[in-house]
Amino acid sequence: CALTLGDQNYISNDVKNSFSASGTTHVLSVSGLHVGIIFIIISFLLKPLDKTKQLKLLKITILLFFLWFYAFISGLSPPVLRSCSMFSFIVIGENLQRRTNTYNTLAVSAFVLMLINPLMIFDVGFQLSYMAVISIVFYQPRFFALIKTNNIILKYLWGLITVSIAAQLGTTPVCIFYFHQFPTYFLVSNIIVVPLAALILYTALPFYAFSFIPFLSNWLAFLLKWMTWFLNHSVKIIEFFHGKKIKEIWITK
After folding, report:
1. Is 4 within 8 Å of 201 (Cβ atoms)?
2. Tens-place pLDDT, residues 91-115
C-alpha cells in the first residue's frame, strides 16, 4: 500500500530506517515517480484515441480524471499535487498545440498550489519534490550526454545513474538542513530500488483492477509478494554496508 497508495500504517520502523539509511525513502511515499508511471500507462492504453480531435479531447479528459483520482486516493501529498498539476499543464498545453517549457510548467504548478495553500511552501516534501525535479531537468540531460552508447541496457543504466545523481544534487542541501545526514550509497540503492518500485506499481495496478477475478488476482498477488520481499531485502543488505551515511552534518539557512 505504501508503494502504490502512500499508506504507511503497516510499515515497521525497521523498514523505514532501512530505506532512510539507503537514501530511498522517497519510494515509500507516493511521488512524481508513481504519477509519471500512471501517466505513461494510461497514455499508452488511450493511444488509439489520438486519431481525431474529438477523440483526443476525450483521451485528455480521461487522462486528467485518472491522474487526479489517483492523487485523491493517495492522500493529496505535495509531491503528488506537484506532479499531477505539472502533467495537467503539459497535457493541456500539448492539446492547444503550444510549446511547453518545463521550468514554466513547474513554476505555474507551484504558484497554483501555493494559491490554494500558501503554507505548503514550508512543507519538506514540497521543497524536496521541486528541488529534485528542477535539478533533474537541468542536470540530467547534461550528464547523460557525457557518455553515448547504442547498447539499450547500458543506456538504461546510465539514465538511472544520471537521474539519481541529478536528483541528489538538488535535494542534498534540503536533506542536510532538515535531517543532518547524507546517504553515501544512494547511487547503488536507487539503481536497484527504482526499477523494482516501478515493476511493483505496474503489477499493482492490474491487481487492483482485476481483484474480482480469483485466479488472476492470486497470481498477481504472488508476484507482488516476492517483488516486495526482494525490494525490502535489497535495501536491508545496503543498510549493513560500512559507512552507509554521514551523520551530524549541520548547515545554516
Report:
1. yes
2. 777 666 667 677 887 888 888 888 8
